[in-house]
C-alpha cells in the first residue's frame, strides 16, 4: 500500500486528509497525520475573539483526531523536526523516523517576531487562540491608543508582489474593535491606528475592495499608516523609520513571516523558508513532496481559502499520478470576507493579484452572515464539510 | 370498642409523630454524617497531602496568609498588590529580614525614565535567551508533576509574559514547545530518551543534577500516570534515576547537537557549593541554577525537603561570591526555591542572582477562581487542578483560558512591582541592583549582607575564621588546664 504522511492538521492539513479520504479507497493508501495539537484552532474566527470576546476563544477548538480515526487514518501527536527526502523519512521529536512514499507538508509558516527589534508575542496578537484571548482581556482595561501592527513578509518576491505578512485580519480587528468600543461608548477616547508595510489597505484584494476599505477606514476615523517600516517596538511605543514614534497603550500584531524552519532544516525551501512547487503543489525537485497552505511559496496571500484549494489540487494530483489520469492545476484566486462590524462584511472574489480581470465585491450584511455561516459549518463538520471549496 | 380520634387529635398526633421522626432522622443523620466526616478526615490525614485540603496546612507553614492573599490579588488585578493596616512582615524567612534602603536626599535620586527589566541568560552563547523580565517559569515536568493542560497554560503564560518555560523532568510535550516562545529543555535522568531532535528544538538545555526538595535521589512513580506517559513507559513505573549523570559526555553530546544555545546546570544548594562550582568550571557551562532548601516539588520526601540543603539566599550569595572571586562573569546565576513575589525577586537579584525561577506562585495564580468548582463538596486542594496524579475527569475541569489570564496578570503585576522597587531605588535597570542597596532588619540577617558586600567579604570571613580558631584554641587550653589541675589536686591529695 502507498504510504502517505500529512504533516500538520490545521486548514491545509485537515483539507488534505479530507480529500485523501474522498478520493482513495482504504486498500490503496495508508494515511498518517502528524501534528503537535490534538485540537485544531480555527484561526479565521479569532479576530472576533480579540475584539472583546475572550470567552469565545475555546469555542474554536475543533477535535480532529476522532474524525481521522473514523476515516481509518493514524494520528501521531508529535513535532515534525525534519524531512529527509532522499531517505523518504520524517524525523519526529519523540517518535522513530517515519517512512513515507508521499508526504503532504501543511505545517504553515513560522512567525518571525524577532525580525523586529523588541517585538514579541507579549505585545499582543490575534493569530493564535491564547494571543487573541489575552488581547481581548487586555483591551477591556485599555484607556489609551490602540495600534494594530502588521509585520513584513520575507520572501523572494515571486510569484506575486506583497509587502505585508497579511493585512486583512489586521483591518478586520480594527473594524471590529471600532464597533465594540463604540458599543461600549469608549471609542471617542481611544484612537485606533493600523500600521502596515503595504501601500494600500487590503493589498491582496482587488482595487474595488481596497477603495471600500480606504473609505471605511476614513469614515470610522481609523488612522492608516501605510508603507511603514517598524524599527523598534517598546512596551508602550513603536518607532517607525525615520524617527517617528507612535504611542500605544495596547498593541495587536500580525507578526512578520519568514517561511518555515521545517522547510529550511529539510533543505526543501527556496532560500527564504518557503517550499517552491509546480502548478500541482508538488515540490520542484522532489515529486513525492507536496506543499499545501502557508508553507507553499505560491500560497499568497496566506488565507485559509488558498490552503483549501491547494489541498484539493495536491491530492487530486497524487490520485491522478497513481491512476494515470490528468489533474487540474492550481489556479489561484482570492475569496475572502472581512467582518467590518455593525453586522456588515466585505466580500471579495478577485484574481487581479494574479493578473486576472475578475474583481467581484459586495459590501453589506449578507457578506457578514455568509462568513458567520461558513465558520459555524466548518466547526460543526470539523472541517470536512459536505461541500468543500 | 374502637377508639374514635377526632380531627384535631389526629393533627396533634401526626405533628408529634413527624417531629419525632424528624428528630430521629436529624440525630441519626447527624451521627452518620459526623462519623462519615471523621472517617473521611481520618483517612485524609493519613494520605499524602498532595492534592487534598491538608496541603493547605503545609502551604501555610511555608507561606503566610499575607503572601497567599497578595498573590491572589496580583492574579486577579494584574496590578501591583496593595494592603491596608501597615506592614505585616513579622515572620522570619531570610528574605523578609532584609529591606531596601530607599534613596532620599543623599544621594538624591535620579529620575529613571524607561526602567528596563530585560535580562540575557547565557550571554556567551551564540543564541542567548533574552527575557523581558528576570523571572522564569520553574521546571515542572509533564506527567511526573503537572497535567498537560497545566503545562500548556504555563507555556502560553511564558510566551505572553516574554519569558521562558521549562520542560521539567518529564517527557516532551509537543503543545508546550509549540506555544512557548522560549523553551528550556531540562535534561533529566528519566526513562524517556531525549532524541537529538528535541535538543535541537530547545532554546536552552539545563542538566538536572538534583533539586532542593529532592536531593539527588531517584524518584519512582507507578500510579495515576497520564495515558500518554503510560504509553511511553509501556505501562511500567516511571523511574527517574538519581545520582550524577556522566557530565563530560553530556556536555560534549549536547554541544555537538545544538552548539548555539546556552547549556545550564541545576544544582542543589549545598554547604559545599563552592566545590561544586569549581568542578563545573571544567565544562562549558553558561547558566547555573541554584535550588535552595525552600524549593518545592510534587513528590518531595519530607526528610529531604525539610532537612537537607542551605537556604536559597545563602546559596546565591556564596555562588556569586565564588564566581566574582574567580573573575567569572559570563555565567548567569538563576535562583530558585521559596520565592514568592517581586520583593523576593529583587532582593535575590541584589544579592547576586541574574534571574529567578519560580513555580508555586504561578500554580496559585493559575488555580485562582477555579477551586470553587470543587468546594464545598469535595476535599480536593488547589493542586488537584494542576498536578498530574489524579483521574483524567478532574483535568478536564481546568480552564486553561482563565488560568492563563490570571497567571499573565501575576506576571504583569510582578513586572510593575519590580519597576516600582527600581524607581524607589533610583535605578533604571534591574541589573543595577546590588547588595549595597539592602539593609538588615535583624541581627540574624546582618551576616548575609556582610558576606554579600564584596568590599569586605574576604576580611569578614578571615576574621570569622580567626575568631573560630581562637575560640577552639582557648577551649583546648582551658580543658588542658582543668585536666592538669585535677591531676595536681589528686597528687597533692595522695
TrEMBL record, chain B:
A single GO molecular function term of this UniProt record: glutamate synthase activity
Residue span, Glutamate synthase domain: 126-214, 250-427
Recorded superkingdom: Bacteria
Keywords: Membrane, Transmembrane, Transmembrane helix
GO process terms (BP): glutamate biosynthetic process
SUPFAM superfamilies in the cross-refs: FMN-linked oxidoreductases
Regions crossing the membrane: 12-34
Gene3D superfamilies tied to this protein: Aldolase class I
Family annotation (Pfam families): Glu_synthase (PF01645)
Protein family membership: Belongs to the glutamate synthase family.
Protein name: FMN-binding glutamate synthase family protein
Highest classification ranks of the organism: Bacteria, Bacillati, Bacillota, Clostridia, Eubacteriales
